[in-house]
Write a structure and sequence with these properties.
The protein is of the alpha/beta class. It folds into 2 domains: about 200 residues, Glycogen Phosphorylase B (Rossmann fold); about 180 residues, Glycogen Phosphorylase B (Rossmann fold, 3-Layer(aba) Sandwich), CATH 3.40.50. Helix content is about 40%, strand content about 15%. The strands form 2 sheets. A 7-stranded parallel sheet has the order 3-2-1-4-5-6-7. α7 links the parallel β6 and β7.
Length: about 375
């Protein structure tokens, strides 16, 4: 069997890291199990991989062929300025129509021998794959609301299997899309606990007491503003304590967030670390790792925090936190966007009013469900269905 994983780009982020974990486990299984002998895996992207962490991985695994196939988009928009001339617009439309057909034909010829395409990030290769009769699987890293808001739900019928990351997602999906109910399955993201713990030993650390947040700062969906406002309220309510909030990550929102922080009394206690390719040192020594999102797919950062034995505080958003934290047994949940409630939870953690040890113990004991071995078996069963 020849399997192609399609992903638009490989930049530092949760989806990309999960893909590499998945590939590592698949490669080991193919080598060790005669049942899968001869299976070949390739990765197709829409952009050249420039991130050293990922480019190095592909150099170390030449058995995984890497292809860059630039996306179907209208390059002529930037070449021909907007005009009122109908003739020019019609010519541009004709040229782009021919261009798209040539690109799809080129893609089909290039990958005609693929047995299974895995569109790994929210149907991002639907234009290239829609004419294929070959089996197609898509992985949905997001909420159903995200699918609907971005018109991705219209692309779903072309896929033979649809993978969601949580049981709650699958349950809601079946209700909202009953015609596709028999195609959707749940597969958790694999988390290699020992690997994360080993990485934390070589990661940058910081001293003192602090809360930690790790994310790519690129959208309002992460709702870091609620986190910042809650920390500021906690800071004032507790008499300006010597404690910090570390925001680990980078992205388009960072300037706006820094401007917000600069106006707050707690500004000197809120630290933007920037991009950290290995954030596990920051996470490991935190009083708690906090997720404040409005919606998620499966927030891997929570499972990683659990693997490090650190308390998780998370918004009770769709989808993931409720399921990962076992309805509050393995972490602390708060209402989405509720600044006062999050500030109170921070105060309770800081003042020792929460039994952190029993919560983190419960979290550690629940991690087997995210084991790469467990997840890999589900993926292999899906591929060889």
């Amino acid at each position: 069997m020849k399997i192609a994983f399609c992903i638009p780009d490989m930049i530092i982020g949760g989806v990309e890291a999960v893909l590499l974990r998945t590939l590592n486990e698949l490669l080991d299984t193919v080598k060790e199990n005669p049942k899968y002998a001869g299976a070949e895996i390739c990765v197709i992207t829409h952009a050249q991989i420039t991130e050293p962490l990922y480019s190095q991985w592909f150099k170390q695994h030449p058995e995984v062929k890497l292809y860059t196939f630039y996306p179907l988009q209208n390059y002529f928009e930037s070449m021909i300025a907007y005009t009122d001339f109908v003739f020019v617009r019609q010519v541009r439309k004709l040229i782009f129509s021919l261009y798209k057909k040539c690109r799809r034909l080129s893609f089909r010829n290039k990958f005609s021998d693929i047995d299974v395409f895995i569109d790994y990030k929210n149907c991002s290769f639907f234009k290239e794959l829609r004419d294929y009769k070959t089996r197609k699987i898509t992985w949905i890293h997001g909420s159903i609301g995200y699918l609907q808001d971005n018109n991705i739900d219209n692309r779903l019928p072309m896929y033979d299997n649809i993978v969601g990351l949580t049981d709650d997602f699958v349950s809601d999906f079946k209700k909202i899309f009953p015609d596709l109910a028999d195609r959707v399955v749940r597969v958790y993201n694999p988390i290699d606990i020992n690997f994360i713990r080993n990485l934390s030993k070589d990661a940058p650390h910081t001293s003192g007491k602090y809360f930690c947040h790790v994310s790519r700062l690129e959208s309002l969906q992460k709702d870091v503003r609620t986190l910042i406002a809650a920390f500021n309220e906690f800071y004032l309510d507790n008499g300006l304590p010597d404690i910090k909030l570390l925001i680990v990550g980078d992205g388009p929102q960072i300037k706006e967030l820094k401007k917000m922080v600069s106006l707050l009394p707690s500004s000197n206690n809120i630290v933007f670390t920037g991009l950290a390719r290995n954030p596990f040192g920051y996470m490991e020594n935190a009083l708690a790792n906090i997720l404040s999102s409005k919606s998620e797919g499966l927030p891997t950062v929570l499972v990683e925090s659990m693997a490090l034995g650190v308390l998780c505080i998370a918004s009770n958003c769709k989808y993931g936190p409720h399921e990962i934290l076992q309805d509050g047994k393995s972490g602390v949940l708060f209402e989405v966007g509720n600044v006062k409630q999050l500030a109170q939870i921070m105060s309770d953690v800081y003042n020792g009013k929460i039994d952190v040890s029993s919560i983190t113990q419960s979290a550690t004991e629940s991690l087997e469900r995210f084991s790469p071995k467990v997840i890999n078996k589900q993926i292999m069963d899906l591929l060889w269905k």
